[in-house]
Here is the input.
Amino acid sequence: ETPVTTMYQQGANFTCTGVASPQVVPNQTCFEIYGFDVLIDTDLKPWLLEVNVFPSFSSSSPLDKRIKTTLIADVLTMVGFFPFNHELVERMTQEEHVRRLQGRNPKTTSVSRSHTVQSVSSAALGDLGEAEWRLIQDSYEEHMRRGKLERIYPRQALLGHYDRFFTALRYANLVLARWLQAGEDRCFLPEARKDVPHWLPQQVSFDAC
Here is the structure.
């Protein structure tokens, strides 16, 4: 139905963001798991055989079951689903219905970029806008929920290393690269609060899970 489709397009997860009022915003909860088949030769050199987009999660041994169970648990934890808020969905659906009856434009939750591809690489963290800090905060919180997973890209030690694989520079990658250059998670420490916007939520836990 239309309300369900609309909410699905906006994102099935709802949270309060920004400094003004609660908003319904899409959350980055789309993900894929790839299966890499690797052959180890007599010299212990690994050879990549193939990459499966639909890897099997069936278990052939207790060890296999433990590995795959841990993988699934870590992936779902890292994705970070929010509890579904039925009251918020119903309220936003009613508000959207009223706006349509009144001929008003649908309420938008998008936030404009504060920089361009050319300027963001040299911008100070304090000069980044809400859209950029949403991205940084989501990426950082995702990394804090990584479990036994390891982030390959982007990483501070490999900034610029994979640029040649992109046909064009991506704004989100440049924002995260600027954040990594400026110290990554250190900007969330209490003594570094002066370098970030005052409206950014204060971090309450620094322990990864």
In short: The first strand starts at residue 35 and ends at 40. The mean pLDDT is 79. The first helix runs from residue 2 to 10.
